[in-house]
Amino acid sequence: MNASRKACVLGAALLLGSCSQAPRDTFQGYVEGEFVYMASSQSGRLDALAVARGQQVAANAPLFRLESADETAARDQAAQQLAAAESQLADIKLGKRPQEIAVTREQLKQAEANAQNAAQQLARNEKLAPVGGVSKADLDAARAQADATTALVRQLRGQLVVDTLPNRKDQIGAQTAQVEAARAMLAQAEWRLAQKTVAAPKAGLVFDTLYREGEWVMAGNPVVRLLPPENIKVRFFIPQTLVGAIAPGRKVEIHCDGCAAPIPAQITFISSEAEYTPPVIYSNENRGKLMFMLEARPDATDAPKLHPGQPVEMVLK
């Protein structure tokens, strides 16, 4: 073969080789789920498990309930303490009732009448004493009776003034603080009681249940593993030669075995670090093995068609 013909054959081979090396738009990946681990902030025996593994639940659907006898009693006690504090505050603000003040006024009238009688008797005895009309003992008794009735009148007049005075602001302020403290204790008790019942924060799949009814659950330990559809994503890897041309928001299609049709998705994350596959020592000759991880999320309506761990193919659009 002459030199010119060899050059043509070599050129055609290089052209075909360059076409076979064109960047692919289909990449291997797998489905991954971001699970929501549902737990209570309180410890207790698992009294009721309202869901089963594989069940679809709606938002706010009950998931499980822990025993709550102690928390219920604490809530009831706090409610009673608040009611007592509020009643005492209302009583302080009211002061003496009109009926009580009326009783004091009647007692004062009686005391004034007794004092007047005692004063008149003392005056008569003082006139009779010089001529021997009364004994010295009777005169002393009349003086004592007059002094006692006069003192009682002064006491009841003072009591009536006190009964009609406005209540002291410092007493009202102190009792108001007691009411607020009791209200805060009730709110805390109600929160602890509410923590014994856990509901789904959003709709999703009950991927797993981790306890059985009757078992003791420590605070913070998850009882139900929930997978909302918006938490399903697909991870796949692309060569470093393509990563610069791809940005978050780009449309892709997910192909999987058993899927009736491609599932549309959107790239939401591109890793900032490259990975080798398989691990090798970096050089200009093997940098083609550098791969970047990307994540794409399907629409929430299509996400239930995919399952964590499922292998898929990703096609760039």
Structural write-up:
This protein is of the alpha+beta class. It has 3 domains: 23-33 and 229-316, Efflux pump adaptor protein, beta barrel domain (Elongation Factor Tu (Ef-tu), domain 3), CATH 2.40.30; 36-68 and 196-227, OB fold (Dihydrolipoamide Acetyltransferase, E2P) (Beta Barrel), CATH 2.40.50.100; 76-189. 42% of the residues lie in helices and 26% in strands. The protein is built from 6 helices and 14 strands. It has helices at 3-20, 69-94, 98-128, 136-163, 169-194, 240-243, and strands spanning 26-33, 36-39, 44-49, 56-57, 62-66, 197-199, 204-209, 216-217, 222-227, 232-239, 251-255, 263-276, 290-298, 311-316. The strands form 3 sheets. The protein has a 6-stranded antiparallel β-barrel with strand order 1-10-13-12-11-14. α2 (69-94) packs antiparallel against α5 (169-194) and α3 (98-128) packs antiparallel against α4. The longest helix is centred in the middle third of the chain and has 31 residues, at 98-128. The two termini are 46 Å apart. Residues 1-23 and 278-283 have low confidence and may be disordered.
